[in-house]
Specification:
Largest sheet: 8 strands, parallel, barrel
Mean pLDDT: 96
Number of helices: 12
Number of strands: 8
Oligomer: single chain
Shape: elongated
Low-confidence stretches: none
Radius of gyration: 23 Å
Helix content: 40-55%
Strand order of the largest sheet: 1-2-3-4-5-6-7-8
Bound molecules: 3-methyl-2-oxobutanoic acid
Length: about 290
C-alpha cells in the first residue's frame, strides 16, 4: 500500500487549479475518507481530494452529516493527508464548528491545517458566510465555498432538493456565488442546480465551480467515492447525478463469501499459505509436549 508510484505527479497547488481553470481543463475532484480511499484517488490522478462530511453517512453509518464531530473529521483528514502526495486536499468544516462567528471558524480552520494536515477547508453557505470566508482567507487558509444545495441545512431547505429551479431561486444562488467569490474563495462547490443555471452562474464567475448534480457547464466535478465505486448494498437510493463506475460491493461480497466457504470447507488455508518448519524440529517439539 505504501509503495510510491513509478512516476510521481507534481504537487497540485492553488496555482495549478487556477491554471487548469484558465485553460478550461475540467478539475477532477473526489471525496476520500481514509488512507486507502485517498491513496487510490491520488494515484488515479485527482486534482483535488475532499474529506467531505458525507463521511458521516458513508463511512460512519450516521443518519446525516450534522452528527459528525470536529474531532472525527480531523482524524479522517489526518489519514487522508498521509496518503495524498499530489492532489490538493480539502477538509469539510462540520456543522457547528464554524457558524457561530468568524473567530470560531478561523480557529476551526487552523485546526484543520495544523492537526488535519489538509491544505484548505470547505464551508457551506452564501452571502451570510462572506465575513467568515474573509476571516479565514485573510489568515492564509484557502477556502472552498459551497452553494446551491447545502446538506448541513437540509432541515431548513425541506430536504435534499434541487435548488435554483426558478428565476428568483437561480438569482439567489448567483448572488451567493458572487459573494463567496468576493470574500476570497478560490473555488466553490455548486450542488444540485439545474445544468443550464449552473452553466450561467459559472459564466459569471472568475473562480472555478465544482459541480455535483450541476451538469457539465461547471469548471470541474466532484462525486462521493463510495457512491461512484458502487460500494454499497444493492437497493440503496442513489441521487440521479451519480454515475456508478464500479461494483466494489459486488466484488467485496464475492471475495468474502468465497473466503467464508473455504474456511468452512477447510480449503483455506492450503499449503502455499502456511509456514513450514523442519520435520525433525516439529517431531522434537511433539515429543517435548507429549507428556504435558
Ligand atoms: O460532504 C461531501 O462529500 C461534499 C461533496 C459531495 C461536495 O460536500
Amino acid at each position: 500500500m505504501g509503495t510510491p508510484p513509478a512516476n510521481p505527479r507534481k504537487k497540485v497547488t492553488i496555482q495549478t487549479l487556477r491554471s487548469l481553470h484558465r485553460r478550461q481543463e475540467p478539475i477532477a475532484v473526489m471525496t476520500a475518507y481514509d488512507f486507502p480511499s485517498a491513496l487510490v484517488a491520488d494515484e488515479a490522478g485527482m486534482d483535488m481530494i475532499l474529506v467531505g462530511d458525507s463521511l458521516a453517512m458513508v463511512a460512519l453509518g450516521m443518519e446525516d452529516t450534522s452528527e459528525v464531530l470536529l474531532e472525527e473529521m480531523l482524524m479522517h483528514c489526518r489519514s487522508v493527508a498521509r496518503a495524498t502526495k499530489a492532489a490538493f486536499t480539502v477538509g469539510d468544516l462540520p456543522m457547528g464548528s464554524y457558524e457561530i462567528s468568524p473567530e470560531q471558524a478561523l480557529s476551526t480552520a487552523i485546526r484543520f491545517v495544523k492537526e488535519g494536515r489538509v491544505q484548505s477547508v470547505k464551508l457551506e453557505g452564501g452571502k451570510e458566510m462572506a465575513p467568515t470566508i474573509q476571516k479565514i482567507t485573510t489568515a492564509g487558509i484557502p477556502v472552498l465555498g459551497h452553494v446551491g444545495l447545502t446538506p448541513q441545512r437540509q432541515n431548513a431547505l425541506g430536504g435534499f432538493r434541487v435548488q435554483g429551479k426558478t428565476r428568483d431561486g437561480a438569482l439567489r444562488i448567483l448572488e451567493d456565488a458572487l459573494a463567496v467569490q468576493q470574500a476570497g474563495c478560490y473555488a466553490m462547490v455548486l450542488e444540485a442546480v439545474p445544468e443550464d443555471v449552473a452553466a450561467l452562474i459559472t459564466s459569471k464567475l472568475s473562480i472555478p465551480t465544482i459541480g455535483i448534480g450541476a451538469g457539465k457547464g461547471c469548471s470541474g466535478q466532484v462525486l462521493v467515492q463510495t457512491d461512484m465505486l458502487g460500494n454499497f448494498p444493492p437497493g440503496r437510493f442513489l441521487p440521479k447525478f451519480v454515475k456508478q463506475y464500479g461494483n466494489v460491493w459486488g466484488e467485496a461480497h464475492r471475495a468474502l463469501e468465497a473466503y467464508r466457504t473455504e474456511v468452512k470447507s477447510g480449503a483455506y488455508p492450503s499449503p502455499e499459505h502456511t509456514y513450514p518448519a523442519p520435520k525433525e524440529e516439529v517431531e522434537a517439539f511433539a515429543k517435548a509436549i507429549k507428556d504435558l
